[in-house]
Amino acid sequence: MFFPISGAHISPIYLAVIGFLIGILGGFFGVGGSFIAGPALRIVGLDWNFAVGTDLAHIVGKSVVAVRQHRAFGNVDLKLGLVMAVGTIGGAEVGAQLIQMLKRAGNVNLVVSIVSIVVYLSISTFMIWESRKSLAAKIPAPVSKGGAKQDHSAFRPVTRAIQRLKLAPMVKLPASGVTISLWVILAVAFVGGLFSGFLGGGAGYIRMPSMVYVLGIPTHLAVGTDLFEIIISASYGTFTHAVKGNVDILIALVMHTGAAIGAQIGAIATQYFAGPKIRLLFVPLPLIGAAIVIYTLMTGHKL
Amino acid sequence: MKKEAFKTLRAFLVELVIYAVLVVGYFFLVLHFLGEGLQRIAQDHRYTYAGLAILLMIGQAVLLQYVTTFLLRLIRGRTE
User: Fold this and answer.
1) What is d(CA A189, CA A94) in angstroms, rounded to the nearest whole number?
2) Checking CA distances to A203, which of A83, A112, B25, B65 falls within 20 to 30 Å?
3) Which residues form the domain of A23?
């Protein structure tokens, strides 16, 4: 099928199936899935700039569906999501500036590739250690006074210490059952945004674990809230890319037909898994990202 | 419990088939009616196109969620 905006010929069934698979991942793990969507669009011949912009547009739609489903389960902290969006956009801008600096220095590809491999492998290693320890401990999830969902984390002592930092203003998050300094939230969001601008994609693979381990947000809420935050940051990204002529909205709309149903399945599936299990299942995602970067680095062929 | 899971799975598979048929029709509708117009806007009015792209995406997301929820409710109602 011909898509006139990008001038590409792509099977709509292929796009819907890719959207469906990424939708399941997004709904379940709270990630945008750009590390799969980008290469999947590149493989069928879409230019790199269109692959990035179009993927962002499709992420907006998929996240809207997943957030509505998560919200029905009480898994979205709107207040936290809105605060984080500010930090994310700031971080994304700084990340994009860093890329420009490295471009001028002439070593952008090598630096970004090495940083991303180190980050991906570190996240996976840490999450394997933490989630396995949490599952082995078999400690019942602590109950919050406000009735917010909670789950056990082996990293909890560190999280508690971060929550005890009395750096005004303090933000009360009743939906998550957490009170924490605004600066910590903004710092976490800023780092997520920085990686998003620096490495591309929504950086949910960094933000979702950071929300759990640094802010102490229960996993189910971290997934739902991350998706809500992704709607805002991906909309911003879609707008700027569309203005630069990098978005084929027709491709995004077709991809989203599959993602809409996949995202609902993913969101519903979270209800059947405990927090540490979701975190353990999350581990392969950054590893896939690392494998793609290593492949690109070794072959010089960008997926 | 197993019977309930089987019912849910069957309802979901039926929904997937109906949804696939609707979606294939929708592909042609979207590309046929929106394709040319959107291409013109994308070339001549970049900011309008950017805003429209986000609105279309969110609109489709809400619409498709209603469709899938309605289908699932309809199919479950019939199988129960």
Assistant:
1) 12
2) B65
3) 9-299
**Chain A residue numbers touching B17 (CB-CB < 8 A):** none
Matching residue, tokens 């609105």: B55
Task: Name the least confident of A73-87, A127-141, A235-249.
Answer: A127-141
Res. A193 pLDDT band, cuts 50 70 90: confident
Instruction: For residue A243, give the nearest of A53, A34, A45 by alpha carbon.
Output: A53
Q: Which residues contact A126 (CB under 8 A, 6 or more apart)?
A: A209
Q: Quick: pLDDT tens for A16-54.
A: 899 888 888 888 877 777 777 877 887 888 887 788 888
Nearest alpha-carbon partner for B65 in A238, A72, A29, A56: A72
Q: Within a domain: residue B75?
A: yes
> B-chain residues within 8 Å CB-CB of A262?
none
Look at residue A3 and tell me if it is in a domain.
no
Q: How far is CA A1 from CA A13, A15, B23, B41, in A?
A: 10, 11, 15, 21
In a domain, B8, yes or no: no
Q: How far is CA A138 from the centre of its chain?
A: 28
Chain B 36-55, residues with CB within 8 Å of chain A CB atoms: 36, 38-39, 42, 46-47, 49-54
* Nearby residues of A17 by Cβ (< 8 Å), 6 or more positions away: A258
Question: Rounded to whole angstroms, how far apart are CA atoms A144 and B1?
Answer: 31
Which of B76, B1, B3, B46 minimizes the C-alpha distance to A53? Answer: B46
Contact between A146 and A174 under an 8 Å Cβ cutoff? The reply is yes
Residue A102, in any domain of the structure: yes
Domain containing residue B64 = 15-79
**Residue A2 falls within a domain, yes or no?**
no
Residue B60 placed within a domain: yes
B11-43 confidence digits (pLDDT tens)? 777 877 888 888 888 877 777 788 888 899 999
The rounded distance, in Å, linking the Cα atoms of B34 and B25 is 14
The whole-angstrom distance between A60's CA and the closest CA on chain B is 7
Say how many CB pairs under 8 Å bridge A and B.
104
Q: Look at residue B10 and tell me if it is in a domain.
A: no
If one counts the domains in chain A, the total is: 1
Q: How many structural domains compose chain B? A: 1
Write down the ipTM of this complex.
Answer: 0.86
Q: Does B56 touch chain A (CB under 8 A)?
A: yes
